[in-house]
Specification:
By secondary structure, the chain is an alpha/beta fold. Helices cover about 30% and strands about 20% of the residues. It folds into 2 domains: about 120 residues, Alpha/Beta hydrolase fold, catalytic domain (Rossmann fold); about 30 residues. A 6-stranded mixed beta sheet has the order 1-2-4-3-5-6, covered by helices on one side. The relative contact order is 0.14. The N terminus is likely disordered.
Length: about 180
């Protein structure tokens, strides 16, 4: 007799293996031989996309709106909190914070997830990291999507200074004060 509020046992196929732990697609991936980064798979389909959040130091959370439309389009995508961010390990070692190390971290994540010919979506810092990844590992990519990122800081600064010159003098004075 089933007790109120009890959960029925999982049904198994003909094999008698123990029930696997369900994680909702969440997985910790070892990187650099001693740290773990957090990932989560959402949806399923032939099209695969790995997300790279901004920061460094932001998290995957602002990508959660993708759940509203990408799975319905049969796109399988992966959230990924980079080392030092969100649900991933938070080491206190300044020598880890280099573009080259982060680029290699992305490759370690790709290998662990087993994705090939995938889309890489990078927002802000993630866009810069995506460019760096594509320059070295383009053979694994089907495409690179860059959002809210500039490929040239010098060009960006020149453009911002041009916009600033168009502001009223009192606004410029306030900006220069801070």
């Amino acid at each position: 007799m089933k007790k109120p509020g009890s959960v029925p046992p999982r049904r198994r196929g003909k094999e008698s293996s123990p029930a696997q732990v369900l994680t909702g697609g969440t997985r910790l991936i070892p990187v650099d031989g001693k740290y773990n980064v957090w990932t989560k798979r959402v949806g399923s389909g032939r099209i695969k996309m790995l997300t790279l959040h901004g920061g460094p130091g932001a998290t995957h959370e602002y990508f959660e709106c993708f759940e509203d439309f990408l799975p319905g389009a049969r796109i399988e995508f992966y959230y990924y909190d980079q080392l030092g961010s969100g649900n991933s390990d938070q080491p206190d070692d300044p020598s880890l914070w280099t573009v080259n190390r982060f680029r290699e971290e992305v490759e370690q994540v790709r290998k662990a997830l087993g994705i090939e010919r995938f889309y890489l979506y990078g927002q802000s810092w993630g866009g810069m990291l995506g460019i760096e990844y594509a320059l070295k590992y383009q053979r694994h990519l089907k495409g690179l999507i860059i959002s809210n990122m500039t490929a040239s800081i010098a060009s960006y600064v020149g453009y911002i200074n041009e916009l600033r010159r168009q502001l009223p003098a009192e606004t410029i004075a306030i900006l220069e004060k801070y």
